[in-house]
Amino acid sequence: MKKLFAIIAMVAACSFGATSSVMAQEDVAATEVADSAAVDSAAVDTAAVEEAVEAAPIVEEENEGVFKNLKTKFIEGGAGFMSLVAIALVLGLAFCIERVVYLTLAQINTRKFMKELADLVAAGKIADAIEKCKGTRGPVAQVSRKAMECLDSNDRNDIGTIERTINMEAEVQGTYLEENCSWITLFIAMAPSLGFLGTVIGMVMAFDDIQRAGDISPTVVAGGMKVALITTIFGIIVALVLQVFYNYILSKVEALTSNMEEAAEELLVMCVKSDKCKK
């Protein structure tokens, strides 16, 4: 009986061992399959990342290509003359921005302002009209203020004096409108001149290279010619940019001058109709 139990126990142990071995083999196989799939997935992810990394510089190069080329060409033009051209651009733009801001703030609704002023003058409220002119910005308001001050006085309220005062103040305000425009024209003329000066210097460099090398091959003269052409190009570009701003400023000056002329005519009519004006 003991032998039978021993035999049964040995058979059960062998069966359990065989089952465990089979299960272990199945687990190993499953693990290998999972590891293989993970490796394949990692390989795919790595390939996708590499493709993204390779594609990203291409997009950045396309976006920054123009600026990079401009910076490269600017450096190749030589620090000396290219710095002068850059300074001309910066200073010219500074004056342009100052003029644009000043002229933009000087613009008002002229028709509305003159109508309100005419209503005050017609009502005999000259002091209120003067205060309204003082509280309004722009050359039209300043010309109107001078006219109202003359109308409110006792010794300068004749139409001849009022007209002369309006004309004189309009000239003064016109001078304010055109202030600093001469500096802009200076930098417009200076930028291409500096570029042409760089061209001459580049040609001199090219001839020096020829003299040193004793050869007139394109390779020898390429450096100097490159500097000459780059400085000329950037000088012309700076002049064109400043010229666009200058023309825009002139258009705003002309518009404000036209508004002053219309306002001056209305002021004369307004003063003539007033009871305080000496005819």
Describe this structure in words.
- Helix content is 89%, strand content 0%.
- By secondary structure, it is mainly alpha-helical.
- The protein has a domain of 192 residues.
- The termini are far apart.
Topology of this protein?
Blueprint: H1 2-76, H2 79-106, H3 110-122, H4 126-134, H5 139-152, H6 159-177, H7 181-213, H8 218-273
Summarize the structure.
With 279 residues, the protein is an all-alpha fold. Helix content is 89%, strand content 0%.
Write down the overall mean pLDDT: 75
Could you tell me the strand content as a percent range?
under 5%
Order of helices and strands: HHHHHHHH
Task: Tell me the distance between the termini.
Answer: 152 Å
Number of strands: 0
- Count up the helices: 8
Low-confidence stretches: 1-61
Structural class of the helix and strand makeup? mainly alpha
Residue share in helix: over 70%
Query: Which overall shape is indicated by the principal axes computed on the Cα atoms?
Result: rod-shaped
Cα gyration radius (Å): 42 Å
Largest sheet: none
Descriptive key words:
about 280 residues, mainly alpha, disordered N terminus
